[in-house]
Amino acid sequence: MARFVKPDELKRRIQACLSELSPDEFPVHCPKCDYLLIKRHRGTCPECGQRYGRVGLLTSQYDPWRLDARKHGAEISGKARRVRRLAHLLLLLLLIANSGLDLLFVPSKATLVQNANQAIAQLSTGRRLQFVALLTIGPVCAVAYIVSAAMYSRWKLTLVLDRRRLLAKLDEIEARRHAARSKVNPGAAPASERELSASDTSPS
Prior knowledge:
Blueprint: H1 7-17, E1 28-29, E2 36-37, H2 54-61, H3 74-105, H4 109-114, H5 116-184, H6 191-201
Antiparallel strand pairs: 1-2
Helix pairs in contact: 1-2, 3-5
């Protein structure tokens, strides 16, 4: 699972490393038309003309915990929703078929009084048809639910892996910059260490 990083902290880190985050490696999508922005378009979508900030899009579209994270995942999640709707429709059809068969094959009071055998045969026919409907529609409905869940899980897993890849790239860039600063000024300590030493030497 991708480690949790506060959105403000992630945005600050992306802003600092933006020049080294290639659009080819970390593409974003237009928030309006979903156009894939794999080149530097000077903050304007070439498809619809929508203005955008790449820092904000990287922060939001690579966050697997947001429901709207990555609008271009709508292609996958949209297919999953359509499959799930099909499953809902099949389930509704199964319920309607069972209810309709119940109403259609329930014997009347006159039939029950006059001919019990005919009433039993009528009920048996209704139950058999319900069983056939369950055997034909039920498995398809179950498979549709399973496929929908698998597609959605795959989409969320893709978001988690992309988030991890982005955080790893940010760590790599920050480590490389720190190593370069250390070569230029070997005696300089990282900002966090300077703050810690200052707090230790400050009078209580």
